[in-house]
Amino acid sequence: MYPFxxxxxxxxxxxxxxxxxKYAAAFAREGRGRVLVLNVQDAKVPANLMTMPEYVFExxxxxxxxxxxxxxxxxxxxxxxxxLDAEPVFVEGEPAEQIARAAVDHEIDLxxxxxxxxxxxxxxxxxSLAEDIVVEAPCAVLVIRPPQHDFVEHRGGQTQIHLxxxxxxxxxxxxxxxATQLASTIANQLGAELHAVYVIGDYFEQISAMFPxxxxxxxxxxxxxxxxRMAHLSRxxxxxxxxxxxxxxxxxxxxxxxxxxxADLIVLGSAVHGSLFGGSRVLGSEIERVIRNAPCPVLCVxxxxxxxxxxxxxxxxxPQM
Length: 321
Known about the structure:
CATH class: Alpha Beta
Strand content: 25-35%
Number of strands: 16
CATH architecture: 3-Layer(aba) Sandwich
CATH topology: Rossmann fold
Order of helices and strands: EHHEHEHEHHEEEEHEHHEHEEEHEEE
Largest sheet: 10 strands, mixed
Structural class: alpha/beta
Number of domains: 1
Helix content: 25-40%
Distance between the termini: 18 Å
Number of helices: 11
């Protein structure tokens, strides 16, 4: 899982999307890998766009192709990609689906994507593209929400990863196993402190208030169980994780803990489920809120690995810890 070697950088060539490029470049350099620059269009792009003769673009109907090629060439000349293996790919279709398909076709290890804050209307109707990508992606997705705490620096022609503290958000379910393994590996190889947080949901307090005997007993047992599991995590192979057990609303406590320890990166398992309003898969609301409110980039790690090309989605489940 790490180091990442094949990095996918989806872009619409906007300044906002560009914020994720330095992360793609940094991890590609760290893993001595490559960056696949992916652009999704609503029309078919010729496979030989980058080498097509100029006279083809003289036709008015091809002006958009000329502009697209110019944008791609400018991006490939970006100093962040200097001396890196970088390849442009153009596909047609729905962005999240095509990005997931490209991740399978090109054996991608990591997708880097920038997201925006959303207004109330967009929050009520539909998720952001970044969240849709996390849902569909068969590999880890690094979500950046500028401006926020950065852990990659590009200076003097050099791109460096400065990762001091990694916060793993875990619930000890199968969905968090792969995230736990990846967070531990990254912290170990990059020499970062590893912190692990488990949030006991505030609904247990409500149960205790309604049913003092049964609710309080259940909460007490849960607290004891979590303490045992966190102690085991801190003694596991690899870097010892500093445990944090808190109570409250999960996304709020994760975000607060990240700010408290000045985390450079949050790592969590990106479990998905079916929507109540249709057959499409969606992220859990707590994961969405972590992504939208985190003070640092969030690395979302799927709980299973895709074994066959889309749209079959045949998977191999991750065993429980």
